[in-house]
Design brief:
The strands form 3 sheets. The protein has a 6-stranded antiparallel β-sheet with strand order 2-1-4-5-6-7, covered by helices on one side. The two termini are 21 Å apart. It has a domain of 192 residues: 3-Layer(aba) Sandwich (Rossmann fold), CATH 3.40.50.300. By secondary structure, the chain is of the alpha/beta class. 40% of the residues lie in helices and 23% in strands. Helix 4 crosses helix 5. It has 10 helices and 15 strands.
Length: 379
């Protein structure tokens, strides 16, 4: 089996991809373990190989950061700056629809960073989302099924934004409103004065409006995503087992406004917002059973892979171009059968992967790079 980019669609492809998306070169200055590095990538599959702790994941993180302005590891900005520097710089050169792209990001240890797209200051993250999209698979994704609901909410929201970048504004607005409302509840310290009640009612209205819009967007996404997840699971598990995905929002049967009112006393006591999309979950059923508690570890990992593959394929079909696929050391957490199945069903487009143990048996890459401390070079 050759590790290659083959077109994979939900049934038969509705169209040929009209747009091409490619990362050609990456420059790192004082990013994590790299004082200075320049890396070129193949338009097909590039494999970064090296022992653990050499900096492979740092490269994947840099690519993810320069296209999203956030770390897929959840790291703060200061953690991404070399210990002997005050600022890191990541530059990515690529192309979209045969037009050149240059993205430059400055990461400050103490202040706010800056980003530029073709030398123009980026003021909205959605501009980067629309320029150079990426999908990231990491070992942590294999916890998507069995760990807490935050991972599943993040999965939905990141998929929403990748598919429809304008929704990043809705998500950010909800988070801003929630933060302000929680600050007011903490300030009240259990006391319910008229002024606080009036101000809280204003935040309630805002939270209801944005919260219901966000929950509806998540539900609509799941409706569209489910057949993609089913197809991807069948591919990875190499058998058909029915999957169902349910958006679990206990407040939906009464509406968010009323649910908030019903929790008012408890929220004052605890000083935190207890109802809304920030508390919702996703129930994933395999053969009618809750996968988080009833599925085997192998089945849970197959579902997690299916979720990531499904999101990648949905975004590709939506925008007419597959995102750049970043696979960070996922083979270390998969058995040989699932590793082979993942490689065999790689979606179309550019793939950049890392491995500490080499490539799975029977596979190859278009370009193999060796990662040593602070350096990346062709083998």
């Amino acid at each position: 089996m050759v590790l290659a980019t083959t077109t994979s669609c939900i049934s038969s492809c509705p169209f040929e991809f009209r747009k091409t998306l490619q990362l050609e070169r990456l420059w790192l200055t004082d990013f994590r373990s790299y004082r200075s590095a320049e890396i070129e990538f193949s338009p097909g599959v590039t494999a970064l190989l090296g022992q653990n702790g050499r900096g492979k994941t740092n490269v994947i993180e840099a690519i993810s950061y320069v296209t999203t302005l956030s770390s897929f590891r959840g790291a703060p900005n200061d953690a991404m700056v070399h210990t002997e520097a005050q600022q890191a710089i990541v530059r990515a050169q690529g192309s979209r629809e045969n037009r050149s792209l240059l993205i430059e990001s400055e990461i400050s240890r103490t202040g706010r960073g800056r980003a530029f797209l073709n030398k123009q200051r980026v003021t909205k993250r959605r501009d980067l989302f629309e320029a150079l999209r990426v999908s990231v698979f990491s070992p942590d994704d294999l916890e998507l099924v069995k760990e807490g609901p935050q991972l599943r909410r993040d999965y939905l929201d990141s998929t929403l934004v990748a598919q429809r970048p304008a929704l990043d504004t809705l998500r950010s607005e909800y988070e801003r409103i929630l933060k302000q409302r929680n600050a007011l509840l903490r300030q009240a310290n259990g006391r319910r004065s008229e002024d606080i009640e009036i101000t809280l009612s204003v935040w309630d209205e805002k939270l209801t409006q944005t919260g219901e819009a966000l929950a509806n967007a998540r539900q609509q996404l799941l409706n569209v995503l489910l057949p993609y997840v089913q197809k991807a699971y069948d591919d990875v598990a190499q058998q058909h087992v029915e999957i169902n995905i349910i958006y679990d929002a206990p407040w939906q049967h009464v509406g968010l406004q009323k649910a908030i009112e019903e929790k008012r006393d408890e929220e004052f006591r605890r000083g935190i917002s207890l109802v809304g999309p920030h508390r919702d979950d996703v129930s994933i059923l395999l053969a009618g059973l809750l996968s988080r508690t009833q599925a085997s570890q192998g089945e849970q990992r197959s579902i997690a892979l299916a979720l990531r593959l499904a999101a990648h394929r949905l975004v590709a079909d939506t925008i007419g171009s597959p995102p750049i696929l970043l696979l960070d050391d996922v083979f270390s957490e998969l058995d040989p059968v699932r590793s082979a199945a993942l490689l065999h069903h790689l979606p179309a487009g550019q793939t950049i992967l890392t491995s500490a143990t080499g490539l799975p048996e029977g596979s190859s890459a278009d370009l193999v790079l060796s990662v040593t401390p602070g350096a990346v070079s062709p083998t």
